[in-house]
Design brief:
The protein is an alpha+beta fold. The protein is elongated. 23% of the residues are buried. Strands 3, 4, 6, 9 and 11 form a five-stranded antiparallel beta sheet that branches. A four-stranded antiparallel beta sheet has the order 5-10-7-8, with no helix packed on it.
């Protein structure tokens, strides 16, 4: 079934807006399925070609768009199963020294705690942090990670910088497992703390993003 559109421009505009909405919804559901983006663009081009040739709106594309969203949701749950439960892009400066190349320059504290909620007890949990100035040698500046005040790992131990990256200047990704047994249904905390050493004092690190995902 199709319907005459009063203006090709209006159709193109609506088609573009709907495509953007589909991409946004799919990104919200499944950030890993970039193929959805290309499929949505492909359908947009097909719809535009249909309009140019027939001057009509192909309503069947609405069903395809909805199918893309639903399929993305199913694939995400089936093959990854991880749900993002917390994201924060607040810049955090952990340490005790003013750093001109940090944002913010002045330290927030020697430790920082994030709060998040879970709807159930998780089976698995993973985290990701984007930070810089993390020494890969624990003894040079230990940076401890804790969940609900329980320590589980040093951030230094996963500071595997590529050769082309400078530890003190470049933000790098740090991915790690979180002990699911440390997490509970309801309110939880995640803390990063710079530990004091006689030789180094408190090491300073700069965090620009943190994400926590769980599988229920």
């Amino acid at each position: 079934m199709s319907k005459e559109f009063p203006s090709e421009f209006i159709y193109f505009l609506l088609n573009l807006i709907f495509t953007i909405v589909v991409i946004f919804l799919t990104k919200f559901i499944s950030e890993n399925l970039i193929i959805t983006f290309f499929i949505s663009i492909f359908l947009f081009l097909i719809a535009s070609a249909y309009l140019i040739k027939y001057k009509k709106y192909p309503y069947y594309l609405l069903i395809l768009y909805c199918g893309i969203i639903f399929t993305s949701f199913i694939i995400e749950k089936q093959f990854t199963g991880f749900e993002i439960v917390f994201e924060d892009d607040t810049r955090v400066h952990i340490g005790d020294v003013d750093m001109s190349n940090f944002i913010p320059n002045k330290p927030d504290s020697t430790f920082y705690t994030w709060n998040f909620r879970l709807t159930d007890d998780p089976e698995e949990a993973i985290g990701m942090i984007i930070a810089k100035h993390v020494d890969p040698v624990v003894e040079n500046g230990p940076v401890l990670m804790l969940v609900n005040k329980k320590p589980f790992s040093f951030l230094n131990e996963i500071a595997n910088y590529p050769p082309e990256k400078e530890m003190f200047e470049t933000y790098s990704d740090f991915s790690f497992d979180i002990p699911a047994s440390f997490l509970i249904k309801g309110n939880n905390t995640f803390t990063i703390a710079s530990l004091f050493t006689k030789e180094m004092g408190y090491d300073d690190i700069n965090i620009k993003f943190i994400k926590i995902s769980v599988r229920y």
